[in-house]
Write a structure and sequence with these properties.
Elements: E1 8-9, E2 18-24, E3 29-35, E4 40-47, H1 52-66, E5 70-75, H2 85-101, E6 105-109, H3 113-123, H4 128-154
Parallel strand pairs: 1-6, 2-5, 5-6
Antiparallel strand pairs: 2-3, 3-4
Length: about 160
């Protein structure tokens, strides 16, 4: 069992292996996957379960399948950096993941990721109604890609 660590912002050097990223929302959780060596994120799935237990069950299956060495959770904030309700809920979600799965979890600034995700989907011609199905996955991909990009700059 891995030693439990405290949640930190993404300032430490990266581990080698697979990383799962989460765009936490009150209704849905977008998930993306990537590998530290490639530094390339891919959308994976949207978790639509209503209860924490069911969400953790699905996430446990993803962790079992992908065997990540790191988890990344988007940390939302107002444009000026002030915290809001989802900031607190995302921190709680990240703590829950780290304590439940004993995998190091990083928080990454996610301001504007949903806006960027929506723009990406519109550019590809996906209609608004269908965007809802993948928007959270694309936002998680943006979060993870941001994490990789920052790691590459600092190394």
């Amino acid at each position: 069992m891995q030693k439990k660590q405290h949640l930190k912002l993404d300032t430490e050097s990266p581990l080698v292996g697979t990383v799962l990223a989460f765009d936490f929302g009150e209704k849905r959780i977008g998930v993306a996957v990537g590998d530290q060596a490639l530094s390339l994120a891919h959308p994976l799935v949207t978790v639509n379960e209503a209860t924490t237990k069911l969400q953790l069950d699905i996430i446990a299956k993803l962790i079992d399948e992908w065997k990540p060495v790191q988890l990344v959770v988007g940390l939302p904030a107002h444009a000026d950096g002030r915290a809001h309700k989802l900031t607190r809920l995302s921190r709680q979600f990240a703590h829950r993941l780290e304590s439940h799965f004993c995998i190091s979890t990083r928080l990454v600034d996610e301001r504007y990721t949903s806006v960027v995700a929506r723009a990406v989907l519109q550019e590809t011609g996906i209609k608004l109604k269908k965007q809802k199905l993948v928007l959270d996955q694309i936002a998680a991909q943006q979060i993870l890609q941001s994490y990789f990009d920052k790691q590459n700059v600092s190394t």
